[in-house]
Amino acid sequence: MKIDEIMETYKGFPDDEYKLIKKYVTKFKDFYPVYGPCNSEIINYCIDHELKIDDLSRNDEIYKKYFDGKFF
Predict the structure, then answer these.
(1) Crossing angle for the helix pair 40-48 and 15-28, nearest 10 degrees?
(2) Reported pTM
(3) Per-residue model confidence as pLDDT tens digits over 32-58
(4) C-beta of residue 25 within 8 angstroms of C-beta of residue 32
(5) Whole-angstrom Cα distance, residue 72 to residue 8?
(6) Contacting residues for 29 by C-beta, under 8 A, at least 6 apart
(7) Helix, strand, or coil here: 63?
(8) Using an 8 Å Cβ cutoff, are 28 and 1 in contact?
(9) Positive or negative, the Cα torsion across 52, 54, 56, 62?
(10) 8-24, pLDDT tens digit by residue?
(11) Which residue, 17, 29, 34, 40, is most buried by CB atoms nearer than 10 A?
(12) R_g of the chain, CA atoms, integer Å
């Protein structure tokens, strides 16, 4: 699937979130979860560590901060 096609999913998101998600989608050529945290810290962390959000370890500090014990 092309980046533009994936980004159609996020049409209508606030501009700042849309830009962050596009950065993630461009890097991984995959969807970013529609539900859940969307901020520069987690997206930049994933990109910098070359980890899709689903590949974060449960022991990772970012995982603990944003996902541990939370339901989306």
Answers:
(1) 10
(2) 0.86
(3) 998 878 899 999 999 999 999 999 999
(4) yes
(5) 21
(6) 1, 3, 6
(7) helix
(8) no
(9) positive
(10) 999 999 999 999 999 99
(11) 17
(12) 12
